[in-house]
Amino acid sequence: MNVENTGGRLFGSRRCLSLSGPPGAAPVVHRMVEAMSQLQEEKAQLQEELVVLRERLVLRDSDQQVTSTQLQNQVEHLKEKLISQAQEVSRLRSELGGTDLEKHRDLLMVENERLRQEMRRCEAELQELRAKPAGPCLGCEHSQESAQLRDKLSQLQLEMAESKGMLSELNLEVQQKTDRLAEVELRLKDCLAEKAQEEERLSRRLRDSHETIASLRAQSPPVKYVIKTVEVESSKTKQALSESQARNQHLQEQVAMQRQVLKEMEQQLQSSHQLTARLRAQIAMYESELERAHGQMLEEMQSLEEDKNRAIEEAFARAQVEMKAVHENLAGVRTNLLTLQPALRTLTNDYNGLKRQVRGFPLLLQEALRSVKAEIGQAIEEVNSNNQELLRKYRRELQLRKKCHNELVRLKGNIRVIARVRPVTKEDGEGPEATNAVTFDADDDSIIHLLHKGKPVSFELDKVFSPQASQQDVFQEVQALITSCIDGFNVCIFAYGQTGAGKTYTMEGTPENPGINQRALQLLFSEVQEKASDWEYTITVSAAEIYNEVLRDLLGKEPQEKLEIRLCPDGSGQLYVPGLTEFQVQSVDDINKVFEFGHTNRTTEFTNLNEHSSRSHALLIVTVRGMDCSTGLRTTGKLNLVDLAGSERVGKSGAEGSRLREAQHINKSLSALGDVIAALRSRQGHVPFRNSKLTYLLQDSLSGDSKTLMVVQVSPVEKNTSETLYSLKFAERVRSVELGPGLRRAELGSWSSQEHLEWEPACQTPQPSARAHSAPSSGTSSRPGSIRRKLQPSA
Ligand code: ADP
Ligand code: MG
């Protein structure tokens, strides 16, 4: 648009110049204008070329777009083919279902996966290629160059626009100057014409004047006058002439001036010509640069095109190769399929054969089942009879076992005596009185040594526990006795000793470290549970106290009530205590509740429980009743756990009133216990059970197959040595009471009140050889007058 406008104006000015330009300046201006218009034309041409190039670029872009879409289509097509092949493979697989084919299928699947990845890669490459023409590859040197060229081009275009502006300005100026020149030329022409007219007029007058003068000279005097007039008139003419000459001079000056102006204008035109030439050169230069840039761009595009084609070809070749591989795989699968078909046929045949066989199978099975059933029935009968036999044998064995056990216990001694020495405690105080007076034998755990009044005395019992022995150690020793209770044996465990020697600790213990009572019940529970598949057991518990020969129920509602011991009315000779509470217990929790209840009864009853408990015997009676589920055999075992009253002797002078009565009762019952045990061990016909409430109550648990354990509690400190000596003597005597038949009658007697124990045994001599246990028969025979009362003939 711009170009055309300028062109139009230029043509306009040219027309004007050609019509009215002066003969000297017009060609120059004309030439200049022509050159400029030529330049403009060239520029327009260049711009047209640029437009064409741009169009070609756009065309190429669209071409590339088309190619890429074609490629995309190809890829899509390949994908579809792949999918169809995968489907084909899966179809074949489903048709065959064989293991070989499955392997093949797996292989194909792997291959497929690989191909898919390849395809994805191709697609990515394609994407890249597509991205290239759209936005010139970043960082590529060609693209940079091309950008530079583009910049240059736009710069050149800018400069060209500027030059155009300048050119149009110059054109305007030239136009103006040409107009002025034309004006000046016109004026000059007018002046020249005027001058010519004036000259002509003047010369005509001069000619007229000359003619007049000549005519006047031809006439005489008047002529003189005329001459004179002419002369006068001639001067006037001369003045006019000089004036016109001056004017002529002035006009010539003006022409010269105009010429000068024209010259200047020509010079200006010259310089504008030069400028135009310079501008032209510049335009040429820009054009060449533009050409070069264009060439570079073309080259670049060419190389890009080549790259793209190469990549496409490669991708296509790869896809073809992969397709080929897939085809080959497919062919392999097909051949496999062909080979598998016969196998399938034979399998089908086999299957049909088997099917026919299976049809006949149920009949066969029924027959086999019938025969097997008969065999099993026979076998069951045999097993049944065998079982009966075994049961018979088992019962016989059970009886035998009980007999053996009895025999063993009898051999071991139905009455066993052990000692437990408690540790020295804070209550023992300090000083020489609290020093330890008890030592043990490192090699023999049935020996205990006591230093009494500077003299060493030794005793042998069934077992001696040092202060280090734990509750569990002691319990271990009595465990067998307790379990025999389940087998229907009666058991008595006594804790004997002076007050403070540890009887209650051994029997009851502390909540954190319970004694025999709780451990025994726990053991019974677990044993009963173990036998639960064959036996049904019930365990009941009673608690009683004997104080001043009065029996009280510790679990009853009326603890003050005196209880009596009576013979069973069924004539079995068994004893029973009417009104004695019996609690059935099933768990340790139950036992704890029972104990607590007993304790509360005792606590509310007596203000000084400790004092009271040391003056009374506390009994825990556990009855275990069992029934053999298979035989219906019933057993009853009784476990009597007795915390005896303190065995210390009360001085004759110090005791009065109730204190004396208590002491007498305690001594009487303890003596009676000694008597009974002695009578039992010596297997006398008469055992004086009725001499005390304690022995009478425990009669059926002390006689017969019953087992008795006496735990003699010992205080280790110096100040208690005489009581310790007394206890140990009692223990040893109980233990060694069993005598030969010839000696029995002569030696044994019952022990009455406290004096009866004040004999001095032969073992009091310091020689170790003279220990009481070393010669039981001679030891007991050498007790001079110690046994006050002789054995009573059996009632
Ligand atoms: P007893 O019932 O013979 O009068 P205790 O059982 O009450 O004697 O014991 C007296 C003290 O000695 C209690 O404080 C008891 O805890 C403690 N005692 C007894 N024997 C032991 C022992 N083997 N280990 C630790 N302390 C004991
Ligand atoms: Mg006690």
Automatic annotation (TrEMBL):
| Keywords annotated in UniProt | ATP-binding, Cell junction, Coiled coil, Cytoplasm, Cytoplasmic vesicle, Cytoskeleton, Membrane, Microtubule, Motor protein, Nucleotide-binding, Phosphoprotein
Mind listing the GO molecular function terms for this protein? ATP binding; microtubule binding; microtubule motor activity
Residues recorded as binding ATP, renumbered to this chain, are G497, Q498, T499, G500, A501, G502, K503, T504
Disordered as annotated region, ranges: 756-795
Biased-composition ranges, Basic residues, are: 786-795
Question: Where does the Kinesin motor domain lie?
Answer: 414-737
SMART domains for this protein: KISc
Which CDD domains does the entry link to? KISc_C_terminal
Instruction: Tell me a GO cellular component.
Output: adherens junction
Q: Where in the cell is it found?
A: Cell junction, Adherens junction; Cytoplasm, Cytoskeleton, Microtubule organizing center, Centrosome; Cytoplasmic vesicle membrane
Q: According to its record, how does it sit in the membrane?
A: Peripheral membrane protein
PANTHER family from the entry?
Answer: KINESIN-LIKE PROTEIN KIFC3, KINESIN-LIKE PROTEIN KLP-3
Cited function? Minus-end microtubule-dependent motor protein. Involved in apically targeted transport. Required for zonula adherens maintenance.
- Family to which the UniProt record says this protein belongs: Belongs to the TRAFAC class myosin-kinesin ATPase superfamily. Kinesin family.
Q: What is this protein called?
A: Kinesin-like protein
Organism of origin is Macaca fascicularis
